[in-house]
Design brief:
The protein has 16 helices and five strands. By secondary structure, it is of the alpha/beta class. The chain has two domains: 141 residues, Rossmann fold; 178 residues, Orthogonal Bundle (Hypothetical protein af1432), CATH 1.10.3210.10. Helix 4 links the parallel strand 3 and strand 4.
Length: 352
């Protein structure tokens, strides 16, 4: 990586020295050498504001000044600098090790002695500017790389979401009764998760993952899945296997969303009192996503028309959810679900 001459000549240089003669000498020297972006002040108290306003690529600063000496100014700059490279060349007549070590400790990168040796001054300025501009270029390249990684990650996440929803649609083709059930139910899960206090990210994950809650039904025989009336006991046992089949379809993924979908598929028919399936889990043994989906799935099934039943009114369905409090459903989640009924009603109206 190489810095071109034009970049160096356009670098922003700030001179801080209470001696105006020194400033004039340095400005003249720099301009004669092709530098065009030069600022200066004789009042060290202005250094911090100038640094914040112009973000100079190099500060040439005297150490011995009234008001604030160079050490005090460097302490101020260290408190506000945005990166680890503070581009300061100290102008000093000090030759003792104590003052030089103090300056280096506070961030000085080099020294210019008094009286000035013009050739040495220009070489030291050029060297520090090269380091500064290389540092800037590295930071910019890192920023671009991070942006590319974020963009690619977003693309992969979007692709994952798209594939999940397409897979859910594929499952719908096997069950003509679902209609907008999956869409409504997933939106309920998002709202219930939010009402329960889950982070936004978790609610969004659950919204997408819950669309696959019945994905296991693609493994149920047509003569069972498409039965228009009540299932026989044997067929009901076969139907209940859709939870395990769904989990098997989704098992083994490293993606957070798919792992969540696996949990939902497996546990959304468990009941708070332990009388659900497939494992008969009880209470908080059931993962939270399974408990949330259970309420949302049952509620929407109740308000949906089926060949074997009419759609329930929303008030009837909400009463049934309340009736299942502490037996079928997590009591706390039921309370939160009933509190957000205005939002639930709105979803049902939009996605009839």
């Amino acid at each position: 990586m190489k810095i071109n001459t034009d970049s160096i000549s356009r670098a922003r240089i700030l001179i801080v020295d209470d001696n105006s003669v020194n400033i004039l000498l340095l400005e003249k020297l720099l301009k004669m050498s092709g530098y065009s972006n030069i600022m200066s002040t004789t009042d060290s108290r202005e250094t911090l504001s100038l640094y914040r306003e112009h973000n100079p690529d190099l500060i040439l600063m005297d150490l011995r000044m009234p008001y604030l000496d160079g050490f005090e100014v460097m302490e101020q700059l260290n408190a506000v600098k945005e990166d680890d490279f503070l581009p300061i060349i100290a102008i000093t007549a000090y030759n003792d090790q104590e003052h030089r070590l103090k300056a280096l400790t506070l961030g000085a990168k080099d020294f210019i002695g008094k009286p000035f040796d013009y050739a040495e001054v220009l070489m030291r300025i050029k060297n520090i500017l090269e380091i500064r501009l290389l540092n800037n270029e590295i930071k910019e390249n890192n920023r671009r790389l991070v942006n590319k990684v974020h963009q690619r990650t977003k693309e992969l996440e979007d692709l994952q979401v798209e594939l999940i929803h397409r897979l859910a649609r594929a499952a719908e083709f096997r069950d003509s009764e679902t209609g907008n059930h999956i869409l409504r139910m997933s939106k309920y899960t998002y709202e219930l998760g939010k009402a329960f206090g889950l982070p936004e990210k978790d609610c969004e994950l659950m919204f997408h993952a819950s669309t696959l809650h019945d994905i296991g039904k693609i493994g149920i025989p047509d003569e069972v899945l498409l039965t228009p009336g009540k299932l026989t006991p044997d067929d009901w046992e076969k139907m209940k296997t859709h939870t395990v089949k769904g989990a098997q379809i989704l098992a083994g993924s490293s993606a957070e969303m798919i792992k969540l979908a696996e949990q939902i598929a497996l546990y959304h028919h468990e009941k708070w009192d332990g009388n659900g399936y497939p494992s008969g889990l009880q209470g908080e043994e059931i993962p939270l996503v399974g408990r949330i989906t259970a309420i949302c799935d049952v509620f929407d099934a109740l308000i949906s028309e089926r060949p074997y039943k009419k759609a329930w009114e929303i008030d009837e369905a909400s009463a049934e959810i309340e009736k299942g409090r502490g037996t079928h459903f997590d009591p706390s989640l039921v309370d939160h679900f009933l509190k957000i009924m205005p939002v639930i009603r709105e979803i049902t109206e939009i996605y009839k």
